[in-house]
Amino acid sequence: MKVNSTAVLGLQWGDEGKGKVIDCLSENCDAVVRFGGGSNAGHTIVVGGEKFILRLLPSGVLHPGKLCLIGPGVACDPDVLQSEMNDLQERGISVSGRVFVDFGAHLVLALHKARDSFEETARGNHAIDTTRRGIGPSYADRVSRIGIRVSDLFYPELLKVKASNLLKMHKFCSRGEAGEIVDEAGRFFEELTSYRKFFESLADDISPRIMKLIADGKRVLFEGAQGSLLDVDYGTYPYTTSSHTTVGGIFTGLGIPPKYLGDVIGVVKSYMTRVGFGPFPTEMSGKQGDRLRERGYEFGSVTGRPRRIGWLDLVSLKRMIDLNGVSRLAITKLDVLDGMNEILVCEAYELNGKKQESLPPNHPDFSNVKPVYTRLNGWEGGVSGVKREANLPVQAHAYLDFIEKKTGIPIGLVSTGFGRDDTIFMK
Ligand code: GDP
Ligand code: IMO
Ligand code: MG
Q1: pLDDT tens string 311-333
Q2: Which of 341, 347, 205 is nearest to 281 (CA)?
Q3: Which atom of ligand 1 is nearest to the CA of 16?
Q4: Alpha helix locations (H) across 328-407?
Q5: Which atom of ligand 2 is nearest to the CA of 40?
Q6: What confidence tens digit (pLDDT) does each residue in 375-403 have?
Q7: Is the CB of 276 inside a 6 Å radius of any atom of ligand 2?
Q8: Which residues contact 30 (CB under 8 A, 6 or more apart)?
Q9: CA-to-CA distance for 199 and 150, rounded, in angstroms?
Q10: Predicted TM-score (pTM) above 0.85
């Protein structure tokens, strides 16, 4: 079997520009598939000056006719999905008949969103600063085996039992403190049944569908959400999301074996950002960070929170490349570094006076490492909007060469602006 599938995964703390990259690659694809995360994702795509922020719909949806699949590993908020689909329809993009959601996807309900905020408050000084989109509580219910899945909506008697069980557990766990989530049973059941009609035309068995597409030689893109450093097991736990954002999430999140995966593209911002709390060894403070935040418009696409800014960290990047089996890199937002006199890259950490080139396995150590930087020259002129490799300033090319050499992974794509066309496909 010749496999024409590609995974596109963020290798940092999310917001690497996955949406833009996937939109670019979707033109030559037949289907784009989300395998994990939920509406905590915000994937921005700008086409012809018009901006779209996608939360649940795969980032191939702006290309007419492309199949968009949402797998069982996704935490699906029906209200968000419905409003996203309506919004696109209103903006002249037809989505009917080409969006499907797996029967096994778990729902994110109002109760999960209220619970997310309640938990954040309860964490006090140890808050994570989640997106408050109910993602953690929905995944928690999934593994506690009390979650409600799309398929449950089609079995009213079973749904009633599951709904009352879910409500009972939430009431018990919050001890009535989260007033809003201690909902009235009748109203809760009504909320659930109202989703049935919406899912009637969307619900599907996604796993066999993907395997058939790939076996038939179709080109499939697996769209990562969040970033590898937010993976619930391999990220900076507990300052992570609640799903597997790394490559393994594709197989568990879609119910397909590894033989259906071809290339793995790792998306890397040419500097680094993080929204929310948690360690960030290369974080910049002061004017330099403010300047990049302004230039890169680094404000959360879901919550509007200002993103924390830092230099590129090769130590964590190399670990995430290994962990995901990355075969090519896509470097984004190179234009944001235009005008910098010098560019710093972290090549090692110092911990307790000792230099080390690997990621410490323990979260408290990761909070204490000091970055060891290599300084590279900035470039004259700009790369903003450059579309050909030959037109890159010498020092900008040198920065890309440096990343390739240090990681050992070829760069296949460089993004030089938010527009679809501000893209260089490297030789
Ligand atoms: P995602 O979650 O990984 O899809 O990334 P986001 O959409 O949350 O954040 C990336 C932001 O950078 C968005 O506002 C994009 O429009 C923008 N962007 C993507 N690539 C580039 C680029 O090469 N240059 C600039 N200036 N902006 C970019
Ligand atoms: P995309 O797909 C950036 C962060 C939140 C918080 C932590 C946990 O756009 O790259 P959660 O709501 O998931 O429980 O929050 O994870 N986070 C993201 N940061 N981009 C994302 O998605 C993120 N999704 C979650 O800010 O720190
Ligand atoms: Mg984002």
Answers
A1: 999 999 999 999 999 999 999 99
A2: 347
A3: 3
A4: 363-368, 394-407
A5: 24
A6: 999 999 899 999 999 999 999 999 999 99
A7: yes
A8: 66, 67, 213, 218, 219, 220
A9: 7
A10: yes
